[in-house]
């Protein structure tokens, strides 16, 4: 692969994984990275912690300052790819620059979804909350007296609420769903987390939506009127698929990829939140917008692009998140038989099907969650371990000695 010209669109986890995957196989080929954001690679999930005061921009960096130079990556930051020429194997940038490629990775992530809402154009201080610049703009607009309205009670909306809670006068969250975090929590788990967040003074209006805006007011379908100074739109996200779709690549909700992270187009690969991949817990193609998945997918793509062998074949939904000190880990799919254990400040629900663990919800009690995750990823037959012990308290002693040795990398276990 000497002289290979690799180009990457994007600068988050999938792109970084790709760079490191390429460099595992090819130390000589050229790598060009193009990103519409002007910043060094950073961890997007940390933008709320930046506002919260728990981190700073330097510590948010996903890789050291020397990363691009060390890996001999030419960066074009603050530039947007306008079009991919699949026959000419060239990219057209927004400044009319032409960038050729031999192998291309598309890691364009996702964008905020903003539904049509009457009067939204009358709201002067409105923000989304997905990027570092979004967080900075929101921080500049709020004050200790600000009344903030967040539309969306999912992960993005609630992390935003946590980030600004101590910086504003009040926060109100509106969502059409009947509970918070409906994509990752069941009803009991959602209620537990909601009570915890409400303890910080945050107010919820669920099973409701904004019918229309006027300056400083949101009129809900329920008939309620909410006054606000700052609006945050966190309704959801959509994968950025337009570059691939516009040149005839196969696209569902996200860009369709195989277990080599290849798209349907020659020499074009994709990774991260813009893609769909095969979920081992459901047996279906799904958008799995998670940082660890994005990195693994990007690394796989980079190795394949550079002539190596790798498979991205253990993907599943997984979230590890916390709100005001309450930690949550969820994984897999929620179907089949379940086991529930609930305490005052903890909640555990495990899902099993066909002699396999296929999903879990852990709130508060997250110790050794990695054992549950490994059971799902490795599709371990439950009758090969002491699952009654594992479901009560995950521990390696539930495995056979041979399996424990394998998990611990060959270390001897008594």
UniProtKB/TrEMBL annotation:
A GO molecular function held by the record: oxidoreductase activity
Pfam family, one: Pyr_redox_2
InterPro entries: FAD-bd_OxRdtase, FAD/NAD-bd_sf, FAD/NAD-binding_dom, FAD/NAD-linked_Rdtase_dimer_sf
Keyword set includes Coiled coil: no
Cofactor: FAD
FAD/NAD(P)-binding domain span: 5-298
Keyword tags: FAD, Flavoprotein
Superkingdom of this protein's organism: Bacteria
Protein's UniProt keywords contain Signal: no
Protein name: Pyridine nucleotide-disulfide oxidoreductase
Gene source species: [Clostridium] methylpentosum DSM 5476
